[in-house]
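Ticket #4471: structure output looks truncated?

Reporter: J.K.
Steps to reproduce: submitted the chain below (206 residues) through the standard prediction queue, then opened the result file.
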Amino acid sequence: MIDLPNNIPIFPLRGALLLPTGSLPLNIFEPRYLSMVDYALSHKKLIGMIQPKTEYSEELYKIGCVGKITNYSETTNNRYLINLTGISKFKIISEIKKIDGFKLFNVEYKKSYSNFNRFDNKIFDKKTFINKIKIFFKKKDLNLNDEQINSLDDKYLIIISAMICPFEPSEKQAMLECENLNSLSKTILNLIEFYLNKSHKNETIN
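Returned output as attached by the reporter:
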């Protein structure tokens, strides 16, 4: 397990998904989260991403992903543009304190979390996976760069697909809590099949 601090600032953002080795761009503008970034920059550049359970609730899911700020810039209108690279999943133990409006939490990193990026490419059908992603994006009227997605290696293809697919927050949480990348790829395909079947039924009824 990577040596990570157990006390980290948490950024609760519903609908956002960060996975280990994934890359998440963020536009920070609220004063409390500007302070959070300042804190992170002076404390190993780490921020924990986690989702609130509902849109208007402060109750958080217990499992999140800590990321490191790997790109940072300031805009002329007092915003921070940052990029987080996912490092490890974590579990919230307790809230420690609030600083300038943002919260510090005590978290733990289970040994099992380091298994998330384990992958057996022998049981992964890349062609079928990509075809399903393409069909899903077409149904959603979303653009997808065919050349770019075909060029991705298997592991990053699964991770980036999970992060960009327009699933519900609870479904994104389910993906975060998958045991490994093979499990994640199956979850993505199951969700896509669910949406495609639902769409087909709606078209049939209409």
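Triage note (M.O.): checked the attachment and the full token line is present. The first strand starts at residue 7 and ends at 12.
Status: closed, working as intended.
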